[in-house]
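Appendix B, Record 12. Input sequence as logged:
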Amino acid sequence: MTDYSLESDFVKQLDQDILDFVSKGLDNQDEGRFNALALREFELQYQTIKPYREYCKRKGVSPGSVSTWQEIPAVPSLAFKEFALTSFPVERAEHAYFTSGTTDPRRKGRIYRDKGAVDLINAANGLLTKEYVFPGIERIKILLMTPSPRMAPGMGMAIGLERVRTEFGAPESAYLITPFGLNVELLLKSLIEAERSGEPIALIGSSSGFIFFFNACDEEGIRFALPEGSRVCDGGGYMGQFGECSKEEYFALCSRILGVEEHFCINVLGMGEISTNFFDNALKDYLNGKKSERHKVIPPWTKTEVVDISNFQKLSKGETGLLKHYDLINRAMVMAVQTDNLGFETEEGFEIIGRWRKRAGRLDAGEIKNAHGGKVMTQMMAFLLKRNLRKIRDIYRKLSKA
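Logged structural output:
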């Protein structure tokens, strides 16, 4: 009888093989290897996650009945709110947090990852962050418009960004959200210092946080001219749903307020139910002299399909439907996830529009708040971000004269 415990040769070898697959880089085209790993991962999750096994049985699917990754049943993202979908005992979790509960704020998804799964997510997302946010850069000062993991241990974004800070941040990198609100003085001081020194700076945080800040600056006529190479990476807010403004208006604000042009603005799609982050291609393609439409890149260890809202059949490129992801890095949970995010496939990747409002036969999209921390955390973040911005004019005047 096969042993599927974390200490088993089956799991250890699977994790190592997935890491080896990731290490082959973003040009890896080994479809056969992806398929083989996906089938092994499905076997593990079928045998160890009882709710998922029962779901597969109802569909008449088992490890012995499938030969391709497309046949692996995708669990609806809603299931993460009903069950702890883990391939290991939850008491062994190294990461534990909640999703944002955007669809139903009263019910939040529970996300758990063991140490081996944390190693997988760090390897995959570290490679992607390097390629699409910090290409050609070893260290840069990073301002994180989020709370630290110590302040918000149940917030997935905070946990993920701590890894970004330690891996890519210069020593003076800092979190900007404190228990007292947004540290407006540190933010403005850092932007002014970057202007004066000519040293590029990176800002990372939620789309809504940047919009609050940009609007406050706009009202007071505050402008910055950040050095070439400065960049803004935001999570949340999507095509036509960038918080309180459109995507085009968001890029215009980045340029007008910070002096950061559109190709140095990177949006990232991160979901608690999926371990891999999906980054815009914009900066990497610009630096490589490649002209292409902005889209989310699908790395080799994932697959993304767009399916019809009625029958869940795969749609053609350009057609709007629900995004379905297959992610080898999701070894700790379920690799195949059917989301309620609306999007469409492009020539080289996909784009996301928003969250499906679930009106029968209609593709109405609502805004996605990408906080990964539950309704209370989402509301607290908005409060803390806006709380001190009313002081921005006086703080800016003081600092600009220094």
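The mean pLDDT is 89.
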